[in-house]
Design brief:
This protein is α/β, with parallel strands linked by helices. The chain has helices at about 5-10, 35-40, 55-70, 80-90, 105-120, 135-140, 160-170, 185, 220-235, 240-250, 255-270, 290-295, 310-320, 350-355, 375-394; strands spanning about 75-80, 100, 125, 145-150, 175-180, 195-200, 215-220, 280, 305-310, 325-330, 340, 365-370. The longest helix is centred in the middle third of the chain and has 20 residues, at about 255-270. The chain binds pyridoxal-5'-phosphate. The site of pyridoxal-5'-phosphate (PLP) has 15 residues, from helix 4.
Length: about 400
């Protein structure tokens, strides 16, 4: 059976009510059948739920589905994607360790590496997304423990060669940690390339409907165990309600991703043909500098398209305000199309040189392509591009 089929069929054991859809275990704690049972659960001679900060059936069901989709041994869920990113590092790294990372990172991941872990004596080195295997090898230090990356990256849509990083990690015995949020396990499974840990902001495509926050880390039990210990005692647990919502969402993930990717490719192609749009960036456009790599490690290009407009913030503003369908919001991965100007919102706190290194210009617009009718989206983006171009002549 296919992983997707197995994931859809995973569900908590049926209760005496014979429910078909999964029940929600909205409970903070679990009762013990006897004093002896409570003792056995705590000294771990018996398996079972104790308290929802440690484990909960609704949360476990969500984790089991993600493990199935990502081809991973085990995992745990967190309250947000950032809690997952942080736990995957803080649960494993210690003072004196070194982390190698690709520069093209989600803003808060960059803050964790450069501000928070750095404060506790974990050092780092950044490499560009197009660094060669020799560059990565040269950056490995005797105290390097982990390579961390995101592919495709937010918002630059830069790719890192997963097979290459897999080789480097194997050769130097490093933990290979990938944020797979943009691709989802439907388009790319990093464990196939040797990833030890895979992270998601479940807030994005996993929920896919802009309702709940969540995060998940899956991978080898050897590395999940210390992360689980870290989370059990520091408490960034996922709410059972959010897990219940996310678990059902995963059952339509493949279907949604297929349509997201079809819409995104069509919109990217339509915008690339418009003289009013300076540049379009999408992994599955032949003009993408890493098109061949994208084709080799992803089954489709994803739902995020970025465009660049001439005319500074005034033009960007006119374009964004002229759109009738897309929502102006900083989130992504929704059924409804969302646009944002990273320069003035999500990445506004980066220093000018950091923005430049990541290609975050004033005229950059990130489009999270939704599931609306594609003809309607193309028409809306085209009229906004043409209308806002008027300010360039006047
Ligand atoms: C949104 C996002 C995160 C953070 O997730 P939250 O659920 O908002 O905490 C991490 N990585 C990527 C790539 C993201 O897009």
């Amino acid at each position: 059976m296919n992983r997707q089929t197995k994931a859809i069929r995973i569900q908590t054991k049926k209760t005496q009510y014979r429910e078909h859809s999964t029940p929600l275990f909205l409970t903070s704690s679990f009762s013990f059948e006897s004093a002896e049972h409570g003792k056995a659960l705590f000294d771990e001679t018996e398996d079972g739920n104790i308290y929802s900060r440690f484990s909960n059936p609704s949360v476990q069901e969500f984790v089991d589905k993600v493990c199935m989709l990502e081809n991973a041994e085990s995992g745990l869920a967190t309250a947000t994607g950032m809690a997952a990113v942080f736990a995957s590092m803080a649960g494993i790294l210690k003072s004196g360790d070194h982390i190698l990372a690709c520069r093209a990172l989600f803003g808060s991941a960059h803050q964790i590496i450069t501000q928070i872990l750095a404060k506790w004596g974990v050092t780092y080195t950044y490499l560009d997304a197009d660094a060669t295997e020799a560059d990565w090898e040269a950056a490995v230090q005797p105290n390097t423990r982990m390579i961390y990356l995101e592919t495709p990256s937010n918002p630059g849509l830069e790719l890192v060669d997963l097979a290459m990083i897999g080789r480097v990690c194997k050769k130097y015995n490093l933990i290979f940690n990938v944020d797979n949020c943009f691709a989802t396990p439907i388009l790319q499974t990093p464990t196939d390339f040797g990833a030890d840990l895979v992270i998601h902001s479940a807030t994005k495509f996993m929920d896919g409907q802009g309702r709940v926050l969540g995060g998940v880390v899956v991978g080898k039990e050897e590395y999940i165990a210390p992360i689980r210990f870290f989370c059990r005692h520091t408490g960034p647990s996922m709410s059972p309600f959010n897990a219940w919502t996310l678990s059902k969402s995963l059952e339509t993930l493949e279907l949604r991703m297929e349509k997201h990717c079809q819409n995104a490719l069509k919109l990217a192609q339509a915008l690339e043909a418009l003289p009013e749009v300076k540049k379009v960036n999408y992994p599955f456009l032949e003009s993408h500098p890493q098109y061949e790599l994208a084709k080799s490690q992803m089954s489709a290009g994803g739902a995020i398209v970025t465009i660049e407009l001439e005319g500074g913030f005034e033009r960007v503003s006119a374009f964004m305000d002229a759109l009738e369908i897309a929502t102006l919001s900083s989130n992504l991965g929704d059924t409804r199309t969302i646009i944002t100007n990273p320069f003035t919102t999500t990445h506004s706190k980066l220093k000018p040189n950091e923005k430049a290194a990541l290609g975050i210009t004033e005229g950059l617009i990130r489009i999270s392509v939704g599931l609306e009718n594609i003809e309607d989206l193309i028409e809306d983006f085209t009229q906004a591009a043409v209308m806002s171009a008027e300010i360039l002549v006047s």
